[in-house]
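Here is one chain, start to finish.
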Amino acid sequence: MEERYNPQKTEEKWQKYWAEKGLFEVKEDPSRPKYYCLEMFPYPSGDIHMGHARVYVIGDVIARFKRMRGYNVLHPMGWDAFGLPAENAAIKHRIHPARWTEENINYMKGQLKMLGLSYNWKREINTSEPDYYRWNQWLFIKMFERGLVYKKKSSVNWCPSCETVLANEQVVDGRCWRCESEVIPKELEQWFFKITDYAEELLMCCDQLPGWPERVLTMQRNWIGRSEGVEVDFPIKGSEKILRIYTTRQDTLYGVTFMSLAPEHPIIPELVKGTPCERDVMNFVEKAKRQGHILRASAEVEKEGVFTGAYAINPMNGNEVPIWIANFVLMEYGTGAIMAVPGHDQRDFEFAKKYGLPIKVVIVPETRDERQETNSETRDKRQETSNNKNSSLVTRHSSLEKSLVTEPALSLSKGHSSLKCAYEGEGVMVDSGPFTGLPTVEGKEKIAFYIEEKGLGKKAVNYKLRDWGISRQRYWGTPIPVLYCDNCGVVTVPEEKLPVVLPMDVEITGKGGSPLVGVEDFVKTKCPRCGGPARRETDTMDTFVDSSWYFLRYCSPRADKCPINGEAVSYWMPVDQYIGGIEHAVLHLLYARFFTKVMRDLALINLNEPFSNLLTQGMVVKDGAKMSKSKGNVVPPNYLVDKYGADTARLFCLFAAPPEKDLDWSDQGVEGAYRFLGRVWSLVYKYKDKVNSGIGDIKDLDEHSKALVRKTHQTIKKVTTNIERDFHFNTAIAALMELINEIMAFKPENSEDFAALGFALRQTALLLSPFAPHIAEELWEALGGKQSVFNEAWPRWDEEAIKEEEIELVVQINGKLRSRLMIPAGLAYEAMKERVFNDPKVLEHTKGRSPKKVIIVKGKLVNIVI
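Its structure:
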C-alpha cells in the first residue's frame, strides 16, 4: 500500500482483478437465495455523462450490498441498440448505423467499466444483433397466430423530420419526443399489437405492485383509463342507421341538445351525400384531420364544428337533436360519436355558446343549505310533496336558485336556461322524466338498468388505452417477419427461416420512407406456402419492442432454441429491483408488463409481473437545468475519473442526495468526497502495521477502547438499515463519515486499543465497499484480507455492544443549560429524576422551588420548568 492515495492506480488494479477472477459471473444456484438487480439499459448514443452514471452507480451499490448479504446476484448490462439516432447519424456523417452503433457501444462500455460497475459482461446483449432480434420476430409470429397482431389503415402520428410513425406516448406536447419537430397526422397501413386485450389485467395488477412508486402506478392507471358507463343507440331521423354513443354520465341523457361526431367517423359521407351541407362538411372534415388528434385533444385548442343537416332521436325522450361534427371529438375513444350535454360538459358548453346551440340543465348541486336545513316547516313541506314529481321538480328548481349563493359555477337567467359555465359535478337530477329528483349516483344505476331493459343500449366498460402501433418506416430496426403473396395474401415467415436479417448494403437518405423499399434482394422473395413470388414487409418494428422483454433474455442470453430458458427464468425472475427514469413510467414499463403477460400466455414463463420493485431516480441538475448535451452542462465521467478517480465520482453521486431526489451538481461536493477517501486511506496506511501485528480480543476492553467498538457497531447498524430502508445511501455515508471522525480522534496506546482500532478499520473497509469498491479492496488487503472484500460477509452488529454503559445527560432549567450529568444508560425514570434534582447545580438554580413541569428527552436531555 502506497502512502498517498492514488485512485487511478488502485482502480486499474482492482478492475483487472475482478475481470480475471470473473467475480461477478453467476449461474442458477437453487441452494442460495437469488437477487436480480437491473438498471434500464442504455441507448448507445456515443458517451454517458454523470446524469446517466448516477442510475448505474445506484444499481451497483445495491448489487454489491446484496452479494455480501449472501445473495446470488444477477446484475447484467446490454444495449438498446436499434433506433433513429443511428440512422440519422448515417445520413449526417455517411457512416453505416451498424458501425456507428458498434463504435459507440465499445466506447460506452469502457466508460461503464471505468466506474467499477459490477456487471456480468458475459450476459451482455445487443438488440441490433440477429441472435436477439430473431426472437422479436418469433414473438411477433406467435402473437399473430393468437390474434394479437393485426394490420389496418390508420391515422398515425407522423414526424416529418424523422420520417416515421410515433406512438402516442412518443408525442410530447404535440412534438416528437426525440427531435422535437411538430407531429402531423398521416394515413398509413400499420401493424398493431392488441395491448387492449390486456387492458383490464394491466390495470388490476397495478394493485399487486406495492414496491412501485405510487405516482408511477397512478400514471399507468390514468393511461389505461378504465371507465364504466353505457352504450346508447340514437336513431338517425329518416334513416335505419343509428349512432351508438358511449357515456359515463348517463344521468345527463335528458340534457342532450346536439350530437358531436369525430371528423373521421365513417357515417359522415353518407349523412351529407347530396345535401346542401355536403361541401362545407367535407371541407371541414379535411381541415380537422390535418390538425391531428394530439392537437385536437388539447384543452387549449379552439372548439370548431359544422352542422351536417341531419338529426338524431334521443331514445330517452324522443327529442330531435342536430348532428354536428366537432374537431375535439376523436375516434380513438368510445365510438367516435358523443351525446353533447353543454349544461354539464365544459367542452360542449364552449361549443354550444359559440354556435348558439341550446343548453339544458338536468343536474343541480345539492346545496349546503339543503344539507344543513333544520327548519321543520320546510321538512314538512318536502314530506307533503315527496310523492308529487311536479312539486318535487318545483322544489328542486327553487333549491337551484338558492344554490347561487354557494355555487358560483351556476348563474341562471330567469328562465333557468343560461349558464356562465358547465356544472360538471354530481347533485340531483331535474327535468329527467321519471328519474327527476334522484341523486346522480342512484340515477346512473337506474338509467343503466332502464336502458338495458328497454333494449336502448347496454352497460359497457371503456379504456383510453389504444392498441400499440409498431410499424416504423425506417431502416435501423427489427424487420417485420411478414410476406405479401398475390395468391396467399399475408403470410408470416416460417420459424425455421428466422431471423429475417437486416441487409447491410442499403442507401440511407432519410427521405421517402423505409430505405428497405429500395433493396431489391431483400424485398423480392418466394411465398413459403405456394412457392410463387412474394414481397417482404419493409416496415421495421418500434424499438420499444426490443426493450419489452430484454430483462428475460438476460436470464439465458445464449438460448438458441427459444427466446428464453424456462428454468433460468423461473430461478431469476421477477427482477427484484428495477431502476430507471420517471420518463419511462408509461412508455416502456407498460409495454414490458404487456409482453410479460403475453409470454406467460404463450407458456414460455410462469410470471404475471416482471418487476417487483421499481426505483425512479432523480435527475442530476447543473447550472439550474437537467444535465444534458443539448444544454451544454454535462460532466463526463472520464473527466472525474482522470482527476479524482471513480470512487470519488461514485461517492459524490450517492452522498449528495437520496436516489429518488434530484441531485444538484457541486464541484465542492466532489472535492469533499475526494478528501474523505484520502483521510480513510491515510488512517489505514498509518495504522495497518500495528493493527496487523496481532488481532487482539475486543471483548475485555477499557472504556476508551470500548467506546470505539461501540461506535463501530452503531455505524454497522446505521449503514445497513439505511441501505435496506429505501436505499438512503446519503445517510449511510454520513454515518461512515462520523465513524472516521471518531477513529481520527482515537489515540491508541496499548494492545487493546490497537485491537479496537483494527476492528473499526476493517469494518469501515467492509461498509465502504459498495459505495467505493476500489479503495475498499485496497484497504481490506492492507488490513490483512486474504480474498476480495466482496467475497466477505457483510458486517453484523451486536445489540449488546451498541448499548452505552453511561450516557451524558444535559440538564436545562427554563430552557437554559445548567448542568451535565453522566448516568448509567437505561436508568429508570424515577432514579434519573432523583439524580437530577440532587445535583448541586440544579439545587443552586431551583432554590427549593417545585417544578411546574419536567420535560424529558430520553437518554439526552431534561428540561425543568419552574
